[in-house]
Write a structure and sequence with these properties.
By secondary structure, this protein is of the alpha+beta class. It has a single domain, classed as Nuclear Transport Factor 2, Chain: A (Roll), CATH 3.10.450.50. Helices cover 28% and strands 40% of the residues. A six-stranded mixed sheet has the order 2-1-6-5-4-3, sandwiched between helices. The longest helix is centred in the middle third of the chain and has 14 residues. It is globular and about 50 Å long.
Length: 130
Amino acid sequence: MSDFDIREFYDRYCEALNAHEFDRMDEFVAESILSHGRPATRADVVAALKSITDAVPDMYWEIKEVAIHGETLACHSVNHGTPAKEWLGVAPTGARIEIDEFALYRIRDGKFVQMSNVHDAEALKKQLAG
């Protein structure tokens, strides 16, 4: 991976995410991966992403900080959007949200082979409660 630019790869991935172009995930996600420590497929990742944008149709991931060490990338982002359906266990109210997300990825042979993330669900509850 000496000629492979992980940051450029991640920026392209985020562009596809923010355009909700999930049909492009074959460019970024290996067919078989570990998702939150469990075996999963690219189709599982796409289904999870579609479930997010189904619940929050205007979801936008704003990248705040990225750290790269070897084949591992960590990212802090802020998720913006207006939930239209229940998301992370919280019913929609019509209010816009901004919540922190922390993600950890392992990249091998130019694709994600491991993906994990956590969202600040408590902040989501507080924002939607008014």
